[in-house]
Amino acid sequence: MSDNKERLAQAERLIQLRRDKGLTAEQLAQAMTKAGAKVSRGAISNWERGTNGIVSSKLPTLARILGCSEGYLLRGEIKSKDSQANNETPTNTADKQDSKSVATTNYNEAFNNKTTTGSTTMASLKKSTKLQNVCYDIRGPLLKTAVQMEAEGQRIIKLNVGNPAPFGLEAPHEILRDVSMNLPEATGYSDSQGIFSARKAVLQYYQSKGLLSAVDVRDVYLGNGVSELIVMTMQALMDDGDEVLIPMPDYPLWTAAANLAGGKAVHYRCNEDDNWHPDIEDIKAKITSKTKGIVVINPNNPTGALYSDDVLKQLIEVAKAHDLVLMADEIYDRVLYDDCVHTPMSTLTDDVLVLSYNGLSKSHRIAGFRAGWLMVSGKKQHATDFIEGLDMLASMRLCSNVQGQYAIQTAMGGYQSMQALTAESGRLYKQREMAVSRLNAIPGISCTMPQGAFYCFPKIDLDIYPIQDDMQFMMDLLLEEKVLMVQGTGFNWDTPDHFRVVFLPNLHDLEDAMDRLDRFFAKKRQQFGTDDAKSTPSDSAHALEA
Known about the structure:
It contains 20 helices and 17 strands. It is of the alpha/beta class.
């Protein structure tokens, strides 16, 4: 049996055993971690898809929790320890089975780690075990399936990634012109933190917003998008076993970066009934001696929530009381609706260390330029060593894309074209209105009105759609209706009852997608026998429309 087939067979057995126990992937991950075998929900998901084989060091704990033998998980041998034999002495049988299992496991591991090419046998090159707990479903199995379907000539409506350019949302011509004019100056490396003019423009942007603490250009780092800077931060901040508090749901790169750095992402709940605001008490309850910081995504991806100043100040007080770093992901700060105003975290405190992340990918529709930044502000006296780590990592990658850096100064001042798109007469505003109204019209689906970003995060009533695997549910949608979206657990939500909708397509394409979604859910209600069931809309579904 090939490696791939073996992993897929293991995946099927694991899924069935987990479901038999009535556990979600998140609950199984928590049970294993509590039992001393630290593992993330992302790792469980990777095992259940056959992306990775089950890690041998985690196998005994996994088998014990699921109530089966290691041999059954690996090869389908003897499902339950209780059914190993009827007439043999239990102890002797167990000994024989364990010996056989160990011997077979060792043989299989040795065999499967070899690849034969011609007459040469060599060890298979495996990915690092550091990636076992890393998961990024936005570009995961669903996208791979969609790409394969497109290669076969099928048209897919993609509502999975917040990438404005493919949807006809063009970059400002002034930015393209200025970058083009500066290309002769952008052929070599820049300073490792970025060109002076761009960093100065970033600094002045925050000063115009009311930046409290004294900051200069040395506190600004330019990166290949915010993504690179998130990874750099986690590498500089976290030792093995350290924890960082990340919202649930989240932008999954934050969780992936924390796990990749050897740390642990601890998810705090955002309350849907409170327009997806962070649950402050849940944050307090999850702080331990290992907690290093709190991530705040505002405006939020995937929910579109915009946090009030009161909520931000409460987060600051929690960070201040426990000497935690505040990491403010504010990439959507200029994508706002209904005359809402965003308050940067750096303008509310100088009593805690604040790391502010932002860029041009969304607000100026130039995601491919990879123009992002990180600004360090607030209480820095105790963070000299950490900042030295950021300097080191910035130097190691030499510099960020210099061509993209020349877009920043132009983008930060003057006319902001995003405002026309999000105004009541604008394209994004109309697309948001249509997406949310159509979703709320589907029986068993409720959706809050986002105040920022390009996303909404609808809830599925599990009484009407009693699903257990939301990724498979989204896979069914893709295969049956050719609409690509990402399931809620892909954003580290702990229940399979949400999904994210990207409302970037024009009204015609978005309406087509909503028609397909409506048809898909109608078929599912018939399949589940819940066509006549009545869903009670949650208060949150219309809270922002009142």
